[in-house]
Every structure is written in structure tokens, then in C-alpha cells.
Amino acid sequence: MPLRKILLILSLALLLSGCQWIRRDLTPTPNLMRTHTPTLTRTPTQPTITYYPMCTPPLCAIGTSEVYYCAETCPNGCGTTCATYTPPPMCTPPLCAIGTSEVYYCAETCLYGCGTTCATFTPPPKQP
After folding, report:
1. What DSSP character marks residue 33?
2. pLDDT tens readout for residues 60-86
3. Which of 46, 70, 72, 76 has the most beta carbons within 10 angstroms of its beta carbon?
4. Which residues pair with 68 in a beta bridge?
């Protein structure tokens, strides 16, 4: 065997045996930076069942203007009553003169046309 191969084999053997000696001499040191990571576990729980009363609303008169009515909150129908529906009044506004500067006018709140009057429209003065 050539000298070169022998030296290569011996150096590899020495290197490998040295690594084993180093491994045997090393003692593991605790890793002080590692912290304990808590594991999350689920605890099965039974769902809480809350019972609410169920109320049957009264029978309102069929074919009349009675409707179901709830004054505030009526959870599950409790507190619902029958009430007579009264439609809002409808007022006919007056006829303003056609072809003039009269317009419909409401001084305050004129629900459903009640309270409207005719007024003469005066245009604002022209600015120079």
C-alpha cells in the first residue's frame, strides 16, 4: 500500500477516535434558556340550559281592525295583547290658486297633510 493511503487511513482513524473521546468526556449541561411551555387541555363541560317561558298570544278578533300589540318588550310572546288599529287621519290640503305664486305652507308639523295652508311665495331680493 502506498504511504499516502496509509497516512490517510491513520489520520481518519485518529480523527474518528478523537471525536469519540470528546463525546465520552462531554457531560450534558442544562439549557437555562429553555422555559416550560404549558400545554392546553380542554375540560369538557355540559352546556347550561336556560328555560324561558313561552306564551301564547291571545286570539284577536278575525275580520276586524284588531292587531297584536306589545307595549315594551314581549319575550317569547309574553305580554302581547290585542289592540284596535286606528289609521292616522288623512287631511286634504286646501286648493291653492293655480297660476299664481301661492304654495302649500306648513308652519309646524303637518302630519298627513293636516295643518297645511296656502301662502304667497315672495322671492328673495336679487343680490347685486
Report:
1. T
2. 888 888 888 888 888 888 889 999 988
3. 70
4. 82
Strand, helix or coil for residue 81: strand
Alpha helices in the chain (DSSP H): 3-25
pTM of the predicted protein model: 0.34
Encode pLDDT of 39-60 as tens digits.
777 777 777 887 778 888 888 8
DSSP letter, residue 115: T
The domain locations on the chain are 56-87, 88-123
Q: How far, in Å, CA of 100 to CA of 74, rounded?
A: 54
Give the position of cell 305664486.
101
Residue type, 92: T
Contact between 66 and 86 (Cβ < 8 Å): no
C-alpha cell read off for 40:
392546553
Backbone angles phi, psi at 68, to 5 degrees: -75, 140
- Residue 83: strand pairing partners: 67
